[in-house]
Amino acid sequence: MAANEKAQSKGEQAKGKIKKTVGDAVGNESMETEGRAEESKGDLRQAKEKAKDAFKPK
Q1: Which pTM was predicted?
Q2: Among 3, 9, 24, 38, which residue has the least CB neighbours within 10 Å?
Q3: For the residues of 1-58, what is the DSSP string, one character each?
Q4: Quick one: which of 9, 51, 3 has its CA closest to 17?
């Protein structure tokens, strides 16, 4: 499950970055904002997974 979550976070980050870049290039502020939000969502998911990994027993 954790590997799936990590992959999903990377996908969200990449998709968000692309949307943000395309939105900026074409001057579409709403697309750029959506991209920033999606990228942030991926960042938060990744941080959550890193925190879970830090507290796992070894």
Answers
A1: 0.80
A2: 3
A3: -HHHHHHHHHHHHHHHHHHHHHHHHHT-HHHHHHHHHHHHHHHHHHHHHHHHHHTS--
A4: 9
